[in-house]
Write a structure and sequence with these properties.
The protein is built from five helices and no strands.
Length: 134
């Protein structure tokens, strides 16, 4: 009798542990099946051309003038980083503004500190001439 109770407890524990993962395993299996099916279907159905021009860089219908792998100026990266910084600021500001009334005065001062730090970074980039296009 005690062995049956221990076995049923063990079965319940295994069912509780792995029962929730069955749906996940089924979803993973279906996902793999769909991806592999799409790849095989694309290979079989898609048109294939062995022409020389098919391997060239496509630039809006114009013939390529130079290699596709050219050096990009450092200024583009700098603009991208500055954009990301202020984009992240906007992402933090919108939810904060929506819950401003409920969060209290401490959150207001924390946001002022956050915007101040970003303002110092912006002033530094401006002083160094990072925002001037040359």
């Amino acid at each position: 009798m005690a062995a049956d109770a221990a076995t049923s407890g063990w079965d319940r524990a295994l069912d509780e542990l792995f029962g929730n993962y069955l749906a996940v395993l089924i979803a993973i299996g279906v996902g793999f099946f769909l991806v592999i099916t799409a790849l095989i279907a694309a290979r079989l159905i898609a048109p294939f051309s062995a022409e020389r021009h098919k391997a060239t860089t496509y630039e809006c219908g114009m013939l390529p003038v130079r290699r596709a792998s050219t050096n990009v100026g450092m200024r583009f990266y700098l603009y991208a980083i500055i954009f990301i910084i202020f984009d992240v600021e906007a992402v933090f500001l919108f939810p904060w503004a929506l819950s401003f009334v409920g969060v209290g005065p401490q959150a207001y001062y924390e946001m002022l500190l956050f915007v101040g730090i970003l303002g110092v970074g912006f002033a530094y980039a401006w002083k160094k001439g990072a925002l001037q296009w040359r």
